[in-house]
Amino acid sequence: MKKISLFIIIVFISFVSFSQNADSAWLVNNYTKMERYITMRDGVRLFTSIYTPKDKTEKHPILMTRTPYSCAPYGESNWIDFWNSYEMAYFKEGYTIVIQDVRGRWMSEDEFVNVRPFNAAKKTKKDIDEASDTYDTIDWLVKNISNNNGNVGVFGISYPGFYSTMAAASNHPALKAVSPQAPVTNWFIGDDFHHNGVFFQMDAFDFYAALGFGFGQPHTKPTSVPARSVGYPVHDNYKFFLENGSLKNLTKYTGDTIAFWKDLMSHPNYDAWWKARDARNATKNLQPAMLWVGGQFDAEDCWGAWNAYKAAEQNNPGKEFNKIVEGPWYHTQWSNHDGTHHGNIQFGSNTSEYYQQHFEIPFFNYFLKGKGDISQIAEANIFLTGANEWKTFSQWPPSNKEDKTMYLQPGGKLDWLKPTAGNSFSEYTSDPGKPVPYEEFVHFNRTRTYMSDDQRFAARRPDVLVFQTDTLTNDVTITGNVTADLVTSISSTDADFVMKVIDVFPDNLGYNNVNIYAEKDPQKIDPMGGYQMLVRAEIMRGKFRNSLENPEPFTPDKITEVKWELPDVAHTFLKGHRIMIQIQSSWFPLADRNPQKFMDIYKADDSDFQKANIRIYHDASNQSKIILPVLKN
Amino acid sequence: MKINLLAIACLLNTYVLCQESPDPGFVRENYTKMDTNIPMRDGIKLYTVIYMPKNESEKYPFLMERTPYSSAPYGENNYAGRIGPNTNLMKEEYIFVYQDVRGRYMSEGVNLEVTPFIPGKKNAKEVDESSDTYDTVDWLLKNIKNNNGRVGLYGISYPGFYATACLPDAHPAIKAVSPQAPVTDEFIGDDANHNGAFFLLDNFDFMNYFGKERSGPIKDYGSQVFAVKTPDVFNFFLNLGPLKNTQSPKYFNRRSYIWNEYLQHDTYDHYWKSRNIRPYLKNIQVPVMVIGGWFDAEDLFGALHTYEAIEQQSPLNNNYLVMGPWTHGAWAGSVWDKFGTYNYTTNINKYFQDSLETKFFNYYLKDKGNFNASEATVFETGTNEWRHFNKWPPANIIYTEYYTGSNKNLSSEKKINQSGFEEYVSDPGNPVPYTNGIYSHRNNEYMVEDQRFAESRKDVLAYETGTLNNDVTVAGKITADLFVSTTSTDADFVVKVIDVLPDNETSPGGASRDVTMAGYQRLVRAEVMRGKFRNNYENPEPFVPGKISEVKINLNDVCHTFKKGHKIMLQIQSSWFPLVDRNPQKFMRIPDAHEKDFQKATIRIYHDTDHVSKIILPVLQQ
Asked: How far apart are CA B90 and CA B84, in angstroms?
C-alpha cells in the first residue's frame, strides 16, 4: 500500500526535471499531454491526465491507471518521466496513457472512501462506486479522445490494483483487458493492515499518519498539495512501537482527523463492515481479459494477488482469459528494472524484465491492438524460487500437487513420520515487553526484504521454537498454500502464533564468488552458508482460530488446536538443503502485540499486557504439523 | 594474541595493514640483510634476522622485535617489504632486528606459553625471555658493526609480551621499550580468559595454529592442527557442545599442547600466576611507552595493566601510555579514520606515528629531536578528540555510583526504601549472542556494536538513565557491583556499559544494512565474570541456590563522553556466546562438563535498598 505512494510520488517530484534522455525527447515530440475534468453520473468531476500520440495514421488504444496517489505532476507542460520506465514500451506502441485521481483524492472532487465497497445493485445516479466511476470515465474517453480504437485497458499496482479490480467490474464494453497487480483485496484477512485479524500497526501507522504523505488526512477540496504527515518522534521503529504501548496510545498521534483510523479501531472483528470492503465482491461476471500479477515476497499485498485471482476463477467458470503471473518480488518490483534478486536471494536472471516483455506488454498488445501472440501466457505463470525457474501450470494450485503432512518431533526435528513419544511438548515464554523482532537489525522504516531475510537471528532466541528436517536427499517443491496445524496450550486466554517456513541453505553455499571466509567481510555481504531463507510466514491471532467473525478465548492450559493457512508459495527446497519451521508468538513491530488476554485489543490498556507460557505439543496423541502442498514430478 | 591473523597475513603479504609500503624496493635498496643464529647462555641458538643500513656514515641504534610468529622471510636474499614499527622509522634508518623466540619457527629450544619470568637466576640453565633478550643484545653489540650502543624493543600482542619481558633485569644497553597491546595476564583479562571465563572463539581459532607441536626448527608449521570451516561460528560452537568435545578426534584430539594446558588449568593456579609478568615490573629504569586500543578485543587489559604495574612499582620511571580508538594492532597501519559507526574524520595513525612513536624512539635511541608527550595521551571516544593527562586515570575524576532500580531505571541518586529485583532465565541451550549477524570468525566490531538486538531478549536486563542534561565524560576504570542470586551453583555475569543515542539521531547515508542510528545502543565497555571466581580466582566457590551474593566485576578503562541528550545504559546477561564458552551453571570443572551438566538457571539481579546493584563510573570533572 505504502510503497507505491512513496515510489510514485518520489518519481514524480524528483525525477521529472532531472533525468532527460533520448526517450524523453522522443516522447515530448510525439505526444501531447492534456488535463481534463471528467464528469461522473452524479455530477462529481474527476481530474484526469491524458497523454495522447500525435500520430493520426492509425487508431490507438487507451491504457488507464486510476490512483489515490496523484497523477502529478500537474500542468500540461509537466510530464511524468515515463522514459525511465518500462512503460515507455506502451508509448512506442502508440497507446494513449490515462491517469486519473480517484474520487476524493488530490485534484478530484468529492469525498474519498477507503476501499470503497462495490455496489452490485446500483439503482440511481446517486449510487456510485469505483466501478461506476471507471465506467463513466471510459465512456467519456472513447467518445472524446480523437482517433481512439475503441479498446481500453486498465492496470495498476497496489491501491491502483484495487481500482483495477473495480474497473473490471464496470464491464464497460470498450474495456477489453485488465491487469490488477498486487491488488489490495482484503484488509482484514491478508493485505496491508491486517493478517488474520492481527493489526499490521507499522504499515498502517506509516500510511495513514506518520509517513505516506498524510494519506489519512481529510480532503476538503481539490488540491495538488500533499497533506501533512505527523512523522515519527523516534526513528527506531522497534523502540517507538514498544514504548508507545497499547494501540490506544497510537491513536493519540493520529488525532481525530484520520477517519479511517477510527474505523479500523472500531471494527476489531471480521464484521459486515469489513466484508463489504472485500474486493472479491467485485469479481463476478467479469467480461475483460484478466491478468493478475503478484509478488511472492510482497510485504503488502501478496495475499490479494493470489486470492483475487482465485475468486475470479471461482466466480467466472469457463472464462477464457483469467490468468495469473507470480514472481519472486517485493511490492512493485516487477515494474522496476532490477528483478535479479530480493534482499540476499539471487534469482539468476532479470525476472522483472522477463515479466514485462513476456507477459504484460504482449497481454495488452494482443487485447487492445490485436497484435502479436499470447500463447506463451499459461493459466498460471509462476517463478519457482529455490529452483530459480519460470514454470507454467494449467491451474493453480497445480493439479499434480499433493498435500503432505510433516510432523513436529521432540528434539527440534521435523519429519514425514508421526511422533510416537508420550506427552512431549516444547515451551517458551512470550513476553509482550520483549517481543520477537521481525527483522535482524533495527530500522526506521519497514524493510521490503523481511519476507526472504535470514532467520538465524530469531533461531537464537529463547522465545522462538525451531524444528528442522535432516538434509534433504531430493528436491522438494511446494506449490500452493501451506497449512499450519498446531496443538497448543497457553497459560492465558489469548496469544498470537507465527509460523515461518524456512529454507536452510547448505553450509558451503555462496553467491558471486564472495569469499565468506574472508577475514573482513567485503561490505558485510551476508554469509549465505547456513542461511535461513524465509520462504513464507503468516501470523494467526489465536482468538480468531475458529472464526474471524466471532473470537473465542483460550481456556488456560487446555490443549487447543490452532490451524491456519499461509498465503500461496512456489518454492523448491533443493537437495542438500533442509526444511525448517520456526514458531513464535510475536512479530514486532510488524504486527501489533497481543496482550495475551482475551479482549478487544484496540481497547487494551498498557496494564492488560501480560506474559504467557506457550506450549506446542508433539507427541503421539497431540500432533502439531504443517501441511505442505508438494508438487509431484 | 590473535595477532596471528595479522602476523600470518603479513607474512603472506596480503594484509593491508602491513603490506603497505610506498616503495617496495626501499628495504633492499637501503639495507643489507643478515640471517644468523645467536647462541644463548644455555647453548640454544635463536634465529635472528638483521637489516643493517647500507649507509655507514653514522652509527645506528638497534630496534628489535622478538616474535613467535616468524621472522620471515628467511634467507639473506629475501627481504621484507616493510620493516620496523612504522615507515618513518624505516626511513630514519635503524638496525632492525627480528628474532624467532625460543622454540618457535627457526629457533632451537622449547617454547613455553607466555614464558614465566625466573627471578634471581642461579645458573646458565635458568633461562627466560629476559635472559634471551639480554644475551641477544650482548651479541648484537659485539658483533654488528656501526652500532651506537643502544637498543630499543617493540612488539604488538604476543611480541608485545616479549617487549615487556626484556624489562626485568634488562641489559643496560636497552634504552627504549614499547610494549603494544602486550599479552599480560591470560587468566584475568587478556585473550584466553577474562575473569576466569574462557574465550572459546578466539582460543579455538588461535590454538589450532599456535598450539601445534614441532620436532625442531622449522620455516613453516604447515597446516593447522585440524581443518575447520564454518560460515556461522555461533551455530558451530552450539552444535559442538561442551568444551571437552573440542578434544574429539575431529578437532584438537590432544594435539595442541597449549590447548591441553588451557583445559587443564581452569583456575588461577601456579601455571597462570607464573605467567603474569606484572609483579616483576619493579624498579624499571628503561623509558617505556605502552600502546593500547580501546576496541582491542584481545589485549586491552594487557596494555592498561602493563602501564599500571610499571607506574605503581617503578614510580620514577619515564612511563608513557597511549590509548587510541583502535582494534588490535590497528595503530600499525597507515590509515585509521573510522571504525564501526564511529567516524574520526582525521587519520589517527598519522598523529600517533609521527608525533609519538617515531619521536619516542628517535629521542631515546638517537638523541634526535625531543619527546615531550604527556604521561597519558588518550583518545576520548564520543567526542573523538585526543586528550592529554599527566596521570592515568586522571586525578580529577570522581567515582560516581549509578544504581539500578525498578522500571529499567539507572540513576546516580540512591533511592531509599527501594525493593525488588529483576530476573531472567539463563538457558545454556539458548545463549545470548555476543554479536548480531552471522560471522565465520569473531566480529571485530563487537566492542562498539549496537546492543538493541540483545535488549529485545528476555534473558538480557537493561537499565538506563534519563536523558543527560550535560556531557558526562568517563575516564578510568569502571566497576560493576551486583547483588545476585541464582537457582543453581554457578553462573556467568556479563555487564555492558552502553551509550544510547537520541531518538532523532540521523543516520549517515550509505550505511550498510540501512540501520537506523536513532536510539542506537553503542557498546562502550563490557566484561564477563565467571561467578565462581567472584571472591577468589584461585579457589572458586559455588553459589548457594537462592542466596544473595555480591559479584564485583572490574571493567577495563574507558575514556568516553556520553553527550548531552544521550542516555547511559547498563545491560546484564549471563552468556556471551560463542565469544565465551557456556557456563553449565553447575559448580564444577567446566572442561570436564558433559552435555547433561548444562542446566537452565533463574537469575535475579537485586535493587533493594540493602542490595542495590550498581555500576561505578569514573566521572571526569571538567
From this structure: 6
**ipTM for the complex shown:** 0.85
Annotate A536-602 with DSSP letters as a single string: EEEEEEGGGSS-SSS--PPPTT--EEEEEEPPPEEEEE-TT-EEEEEEES--BTTSPPP-SSSS-GG
* Average pLDDT of the residues in B409-415: 92
Q: How far apart are CA A246 and CA B584, in angstroms?
A: 39
Cell numbers standing for residue A343 = 534482499
Band of the pLDDT at A9, cuts 50, 70, 90?
A: very low
At CB < 8 A and 24+ separation, what contacts does A555-559 make? A555/A493, A556/A489, A556/A490, A556/A491, A556/A492, A556/A493, A557/A489, A557/A490, A557/A491, A558/A489, A559/A487, A559/A488, A559/A489, A559/A617, A559/A622
Is the pLDDT score of A250 beyond 50? yes
Nearest Cα to Cα of residue A579 among A532, A629, A526, A633: A532
User: Within 13 Å of residue B80, how many CA atoms lie on the same side as its CB?
Assistant: 28
pLDDT digits (tens, 9 = 90+) for A37-86: 999 999 999 999 999 999 999 999 999 999 999 999 999 999 999 999 99
Summarize pLDDT for B59-85 with one digit per residue, the tens: 999 999 999 999 999 999 999 999 999
The pLDDT value recorded for residue B3 is 45
Query: Which pLDDT does position B19 carry in this prediction?
Result: 41
Q: Which of residues 52-91 of A touch B (CB under 8 A)?
A: none
Which residues have CB under 8 Å from B202's CB, separation 6+? B1, B2, B191, B192, B297, B298, B442, B579
Mean pLDDT (chain A) is 93
- Is the CB of residue B382 less than 8 Å from the CB of residue B341? no
In 10 A of CB B85, how many CB atoms? 26
* CA dist A276 → A185, A263, A272, A273, A546 (Å): 11, 13, 6, 5, 21
Amino acid at A205: F
Global pTM? 0.91
Contact A523 B507 (CB under 8 A): no
A343 φ/ψ angles, rounded to the nearest 5 degrees: 55, -125
Note the residue count of chain B. 622
**Per DSSP, what are the bridge partners of residue B403?**
B411, B614
Residue A352 CA from chain centroid, whole number? 17
Looking at per-residue confidence, does B3 or B185 come out higher?
Answer: B185
Region A466-493: mean pLDDT is 98
Whole-angstrom distance, CA of residue A323 vs CA of residue A317: 13
Contact list, A462 vs chain B (CB under 8 Å): 425, 427, 430, 457-459
Q: Which of A241, A242, A519, A520 to mutate to test the interface with B (most CBs of B within 10 A)?
A: A519
CA gap B314, A51 in Å, rounded = 87
Chains A and B form CB pairs within 8 A to the count of 118
Q: Is the peptide bond before A589 cis (omega within 30 degrees of 0)?
A: yes
Does the beta-carbon distance from B513 to A454 stay under 8 Å?
no
Q: To 5 degrees, how large is the angle CA A626–CA A630–CA A632?
A: 160
Of residues B425, B427, B458, nearest to A434 (C-beta): B458
In angstroms, the CA B302 to CA B285 distance is: 20
What pLDDT, on a 0 to 100 scale, did the predictor assign at position A20?
65
Nearest C-alpha neighbor of A380 from the set A445, A448, A312 = A312
Confidence band for A511, pLDDT divided at 50, 70 and 90 = low
Q: How many residues does chain A have?
A: 633
Residue indicated by cell numbers 626484556: B166
Which among A234, A516, A531 has the least Cβ separation from residue B519?
A: A234
Instruction: Report the pLDDT value the prediction gives residue A555, as an integer from 0 to 100.
Output: 98
* Torsion (CA) A72, A76, A80, A82 in degrees, nearest 10: 150
Residue whose C-alpha is closest to residue A192's, from A183, A535, A272: A183
